[in-house]
Amino acid sequence: MIEAHATARYVRTSAQKAGLVLDLIRGKDVNQALATLTFARKSVAADVAKLLRSAIANAQQKEGFGGDVDRLFVSACYANQGPSQKRVRPAPMGRAFRVLKRTAHLTVRVSERAEKIVPVAAGEAPKRRPRAGAVKKSAPAAKRAPKKAKE
Q: Which of 49, 20, 19 has the alpha carbon at shortest distance from 36?
């Protein structure tokens, strides 16, 4: 099973805001994740999409890659806090407020899904299990005797 990752360091966004976007793609197939990022209404989504494409390219360069990008999925993605730039903003009455311009280190890890090999016996159909929560239908109940009216 091939596993590759890509890291973008010092991305000018907070780790919390990037984490919201990364939560959208965690565990999804790479094509579905790229489609999700295309329509996400966050500015950091473009950085994450670029990072995901880089992780896919890294997986393709690995030795032993099967060649099928459709089998890749986002196995892990996270945002770590980077260094903050400290700036000063003038405030009323000669004071100054501190402004933190946060950065984040983004990491996306992609893995190849293992193919499930299921042995099939010749001439035998697989047994079906009932669905979870399915109710068995029973024969209609016999008519009950009408209740006696109270006198």
A: 49
Give the integer Cα–Cα distance in Å for 47 and 5: 15
Q: Which residue has the tokens 């979870």?
A: 132
Q: Which CATH architecture has domain 3-112?
A: Alpha-Beta Complex (3.90)
55 closest CA partner among 123, 2, 122, 130: 2
Is 53 in contact with 20 (CB distance < 8 Å)?
Answer: no
- Note the pLDDT tens digit of each residue in 38-50: 999 999 999 999 9
Span 94-140, pLDDT tens digits: 999 999 999 999 999 999 988 777 777 666 666 777 777 667 666 56
Question: What is the reported pTM?
Answer: 0.74
